[in-house]
Amino acid sequence: MTAETAIADFAPLSDARLAELREGFDSREANRIAMNAVTDAGIDKVARNFDRARLMQRRFSVTVDNGKVTSQARSGRCWLFSSLNVARFVAKKNLGIKDFEFSQSYAMYFDKLERVNYFMQDVAALVAAGEPSDSRLMQHLLHDVMGDGGQWTMALNVYVKHGAVPKDLFPETASSQNTGQMNTNLRALLRGAVCKLYAGEDAQSVIDETLAAAHRILTIHLGTPPTSFDWEWTDDDGEFHRVGEITPVEFWHKYVDAGLEDYVCLVDDPRAEHPKGVKIGIEHLGNVVGGTPTEYLNVPVSFMKECARRIMSEQGIPVWFGADCHPMMDRENGAWATDLFEYGRVYDVDYAMDKEERVRFADSAMNHAMAFVGVDVADDGTTTRRWRVENSWGDKIADKGYFTMSDDWFSEYVYEVAVPKSMLPKEYQEALTTPALMLPAWDPMGALA
């Protein structure tokens, strides 16, 4: 059967069927009430579960105080903000100050420059190997190129190679806070470079020219990042400190000494064909050539919770994580719970997919990274009840920017946490030494926060 024949056999939406739909809608009084309410107030106001919302407590038995929340503005840098929020907690303790922030713009500058090199090297190799320009892989790489998103491992690749600097030494710019136009121009540059590769131009020349052009674009938009700086500060006891000249890499290693480079990423891939205790990798996903590969250990979500709880309660450090932040989110009040909105009751629709089905049928994937800074633990000392989340959406929403997450929402929509490798049991440590089960570039586990 040809596609044309199959389409010809489809049933059109007839006037008679439209009339049936209208009559069916009008016959249910609740539909009219829902329409009147939603058209005036919006679906979230109408569907919000009042009983559930009023019971979302903001008290936690374990809390890590990380101070004032940060704001990523109109950019997709949440993975950099959240990883640097973990790092700044460590740095603040070492510096003896409560008010400190790393430059997220500095991190983004080098992530994007490194990613240009990674992308061009990767694509040049594919072109040389005969990859068709219209293949699913090449079209996926071209479509996704030069977004703002990333992963914990990618962030640490940047910090290990390029270090970090205080925010006031490389502050935000118009483009760092609103990355759309900068990204559009970088994207056009890279796609044009791929076009040249397929036209047969010398690959190394194209790579060199593209990297130089990307460097110009990034520097024009973000400024010239410092290679060294004089570091001095006054701690919260009023004592003045002067270190003198220091490089960004030296600064990172001197003040962020919690071993973040030795963390590993745990994921909950719920699909049955991807067993727990197996290392997963994503083809063509990375940012720094020669850096740590973007790989995860697939574990039960209960183990992810245990690790996050233990890190905060035993080490007193925030925990980086990635989630699908949109479902059942009350952004204004800062809350997530699986039954926080009763959309099904308003629409008379059964939203019955579980986590595995949502991943399999493109209804859910990680799209935002944040940091856990608190957890409420039951009297048994291990059962988690709710979670306190440091977001990077500013302090005008939620509890001065901090969100509350129910434990059941964690189970359904959290996909990834970064934890010290030393926390893993022997069998998981051994799994990290085995080759990763490689998934295609478009697999949902390769989604970027």
Give the class-level CATH name.
Answer: Alpha Beta
Number of domains: 1
CATH H-level homologous superfamily name: Cysteine proteinases
Low-confidence stretches: none
CATH architecture: Alpha-Beta Complex
The level of helicity is 40-55%
For this entry, give a set of tags.
twelve-stranded mixed sheet, aminopeptidase, Peptidase_C1B, 18 helices, two-stranded antiparallel sheet, 14 strands, globular, 16% strand, Aminopeptidase, thiol protease, Cathepsin B, Chain A, protease, alpha+beta, 449 residues
Would you write up a description of this structure?
This protein has 449 residues and is of the alpha+beta class. The protein has one domain: Alpha-Beta Complex (Cathepsin B, Chain A), CATH 3.90.70. 44% of the residues lie in helices and 16% in strands. It is built from 18 helices and 14 strands. The protein has helices spanning 3-8, 15-27, 29-41, 43-47, 50-54, 78-95, 104-128, 136-144, 152-162, 174-177, 180-198, 203-222, 248-255, 301-315, 343-347, 355-360, 407-413, 426-432; strands at residues 62-63, 229-234, 240-246, 263-267, 278-282, 295-298, 319-323, 329-330, 335-336, 368-377, 384-390, 402-406, 414-420, 437-439. Strands 1, 4, 5, 6, 7, 8, 9, 10, 11, 12, 13 and 14 form a twelve-stranded mixed sheet that branches. Strand 10 (368-377) and strand 11 (384-390) form a beta hairpin. The protein is globular. The protein starts with a helix and ends in a 10-residue tail after the last strand.
What's the quick description here?
This protein is α+β, with helices and mostly antiparallel strands and 449 residues long. It has 18 helices and 14 strands. One of its GO terms (molecular function) is cysteine-type aminopeptidase activity.
